[in-house]
Specification:
Order of helices and strands: HEEEEEEEEHEEE
Largest sheet: 7 strands, antiparallel
Number of strands: 11
Oligomer: single chain
Radius of gyration: 28 Å
Distance between the termini: 66 Å
Number of helices: 2
Bound molecules: 2-acetamido-2-deoxy-beta-D-glucopyranose
CATH superfamily of the largest domain: Immunoglobulins
Structural class: alpha+beta
CATH topology of the largest domain: Immunoglobulin-like
Helix content: 10-25%
CATH class of the largest domain: Mainly Beta
Strand content: over 45%
Length: 191
Amino acid sequence: MSRGKTSCKSLKICCAVSAILFLIIAVVIVVLLFTLFKPKQPKVTAQPVTIKGFNSIVWPLISLNVTLGIAVTVDNPNYGSFKFKDSTAYINYRGTIVGQASIAADTIPARGKHNMSTFADVFVDELITSGDFRTDFLSGVVNFTSTTTLHGKVSVLKLIKAKATSYSTCDISVNVVTITSDSVCTSKVKF
Ligand SMILES: *[C@@H]1O[C@H](CO)[C@@H](O)[C@H](O)[C@H]1NC(C)=O
Ligand SMILES: *[C@@H]1O[C@H](CO)[C@@H](O)[C@H](O)[C@H]1NC(C)=O
Ligand SMILES: *[C@@H]1O[C@H](CO)[C@@H](O)[C@H](O)[C@H]1NC(C)=O
C-alpha cells in the first residue's frame, strides 16, 4: 500500500522533471535558432586590383591591352554554408564595358573564408571613345571601374535559408608609364 503511494509520487516527480527538461531544451533550441543559427550577412572585401599583363600600341592607333587581376575575399560568419552562383565581373571605361571575367560558382563552408580571383582582359583603343582615350593615355593614367556582383544563399542546418547579394566596385587607375595600378574598392552586401 505505502509502496504504491511512493511509486505514484516518484512517477509525478519524474513527469515534472521531464517536463522541465523538455521546456529547457525547447527554450535552448529556440534561442539558438534566433542567435547562433540566425543567418548573418557574409563579409565581402574586394582586394586591390593587380596588373597581370600589359601591352600598348601607339601607331597607327593608340590601344591598350591589359589583363587585370580581380579578387574578392568572402568571409562567411554563419554556422552554415554560403553558396553563390556563377557570376561575371565587368570592367568599365568611361561608361563602356571594355572587359569582363567570369567567377565560378563556389560554396564557402560554415565559418570559412575564401578568396575568389579572376582575370579580366581589357582592351581599349581610340575607336571606342571620342578623343578621351588619347587624352587619358597621353596623360599617363587611364581610369577604369570594375563591378562584381555575387548572388548567393546562406543556408543553416539545411532549414534556414537567406539570400545574400554582394556588390563590389573598384575605381582603378592604370599608370601606362610605370605599368602599375592603384585601386580603391568598396563592397556592400544586400541581405
Ligand atoms: C591582348 O593580349 C593578349 C595576351 O597578351 C592576347 O592574347 C590578346 O589577343 C590581345 N587582345 C587584343 C584585342 O589585342
Ligand atoms: C586572401 O587574399 C589576401 C590578399 O591577397 C590574403 O592576405 C589572404 O591571406 C588570403 N586568404 C585566404 C583564405 O586565402
Ligand atoms: C583617375 O583617377 C584618379 C584617382 O581617383 C584621379 O585623381 C584622376 O583625376 C582620374 N583621372 C581622370 C581622367 O578621370
